[in-house]
Task: inverse folding
């Protein structure tokens, strides 16, 4: 089976990772030339700024998933 994942943000990357783990051939498409979606770092006047949605909570399984990526 082949699956196209549209979007290389965290959701698309996790979906692609889980599909690939189960033996599915995955191709990821994104309109940008980088992965991460809204989670991105830009440099403005020599200063790095982290962009994107951030949530701090006690959910440890999210950290486990991110570490596998």
Result:
């Amino acid at each position: 089976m082949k699956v196209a994942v549209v979007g290389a943000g965290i959701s698309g990357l996790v979906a692609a990772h889980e599909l690939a783990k189960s033996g599915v051939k995955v191709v990821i498409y994104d309109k940008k030339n980088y992965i991460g979606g809204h989670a991105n770092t830009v440099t403005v006047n020599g200063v790095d700024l982290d962009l994107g949605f951030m949530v701090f909570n006690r959910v440890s399984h999210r950290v486990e998933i991110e570490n596998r990526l």
About this structure: The chain has a mean pLDDT of 87.
